[in-house]
Amino acid sequence: MTIRKKIFVLAGILLALFGLVVGALAFVQKLNNDQIANIVAYELPLLRLVAEFDVYTDRYELVILRALREDPANSLDLKSTTSATQMIADGLRADIADAAALLDKAIQDPRYQTSDRVDLARISGSFKYLGRNLDDFLTVGQATMNHLNADRREDARVASKDFAKFEQAFGPDLSEIRRNLAGLTERSTRTVSIGKS
Fold first, then answer.
1. 0.70 exceeded by the pTM?
2. CA–CA separation, 101 vs 107, rounded Å?
């Protein structure tokens, strides 16, 4: 083999190695871009929705319990409380619907790895459970407000005690969903930062 052929073979090998490195880097970059896209498109909005849901379930109960303690002669405050609770209830329903739609879309997104899809499916199942509890939770609030509006304060006080049934669902269970979403985002972020190292 002549020296010229040896140089061409060596140059060909170097070009092939360069091509492999560039291809591997492009693949890693695509994975990183997918992870960032998932964080922005799904995980951050889901974290926001769960945080809003958590705050508004507490606010809904708090507004109703404060109405129980207010002066029964002040019907103007009671009317504003009734409309406020209805607005909060509508917001809670919207948050559940938005989160369910976003989770369904995320589970179907091919950019997610299988293990992440499994985690998202678990979170989705937990959200469905919260949605079923939400209807009962709002019913307790509505019953309490109906008794207050009918000037049956003792009945309202008794009805409001049913909020205790939801301490687990809207307390530790909701916190677990938040931790699972935060863990998913943390893993995605870690994957991106390792890929850039």
1. yes
2. 10
